[in-house]
């Protein structure tokens, strides 16, 4: 099993645990309320969405990663999405480690 497969499986576990927030408006509100601990943005997301969420993440000091594509994220959570937010510190910490490991593969 590759690092990417492990990452996608772990995102699926986080989704089933209810620790993932999706949807542009809901995510923006959660970011403003400082509920999001880590953002995963699809590498192939639109320029406007990418800029909006990276700017918000930088302002609120939220770590982001762009190692996955829209297809990867959608496959992991079962819903077509380009951006997901992790709301739990434990899941966020582990996903940061896993996404950093995926960059090397």
CATH class: Alpha Beta
What is the total tally of β strands?
4
- Supply the number of helical segments: 5
The fold-level CATH name is 60s Ribosomal Protein L30, Chain: A
Sketch the topology as an H/E string, one letter per element: HEHEHEHEH
Placed side by side, the strands forming the largest sheet appear as 1-4-2-3
Q: Beta-sheet strand percentage?
A: 5-15%
Structural class comes to: alpha+beta
The average pLDDT value, as a whole number, equals 93
Q: Nearest-angstrom radius of gyration?
A: 12 Å
| Structural domains: how many | 1
Can you summarize the main beta sheet?
4 strands, mixed
CATH architecture: 2-Layer Sandwich
| Mass-distribution shape | globular
The CATH homologous superfamily name equals Ribosomal protein L30/S12
Question: What share of residues is helical?
Answer: 55-70%
Uncertain segments: none
Description:
This protein has 105 residues and is of the alpha+beta class. Strands 1-4-2-3 form a four-stranded mixed beta sheet, sandwiched between helices. α1 crosses α4 and α1 packs antiparallel against α5. The longest helix is centred in the C-terminal third of the chain and has 15 residues.
